[in-house]
Design goal:
single chain; 183 residues; alpha/beta; Rossmann fold; 3-stranded parallel β-sheet; two-stranded antiparallel sheet; 5 helices; 32% helix; globular; Small_GTPase; lipoprotein; GTP-binding; GTP binding
Length: 183
Amino acid sequence: MLLRLTEKTFYPNSLSTIGVSYKSTTYKINSKNVRLRIWDTAGQEIFRSMTKSYYRGAYCAILVYDITNSDTFGQLYIWIKEVKELAKEDLVLILVGNKVDLEEKREISTEKGQNLADENNMLFFETSAKTGKNIEEVFLECAQTTYKKYSKGVWNTQSKEENNEKILPKEINFDDNNKKSCC
């Protein structure tokens, strides 16, 4: 999905993310540049301890499963629990069912994905990294919803206690001059 978003390409023989991959992209929201810094973390069990550290500074989490592989859907329950425990309150959560281009191999219905998203206050999309279907829409929604929450001051005054230390959210800057915009 990340290569489709940032490079507008698809590599049919590419492997799943191993460890962590990083890309960024910028959207114009209400005349402000909103830069998404996207950390693609591996979903495999072996990388779970490493990926936990990325939740803490996140304003949005996109959890992706393969609609043709019910095991990936089953793992979502663990990921959702961890994200809710470790990330900011009011984190933007997006659930994505990927590989809709393989409809004939589908194991997870759209309804099942939508139900899980609804139960967990998540936005829901189905995508295809191969064809590009809804890829841009997922990340645009991430940028728009994050910007909207930030503009309302959702994260400005919140802090989390961790090991008896106050952890304040990272500063997010939105500007008109394309200088330092991120989320």
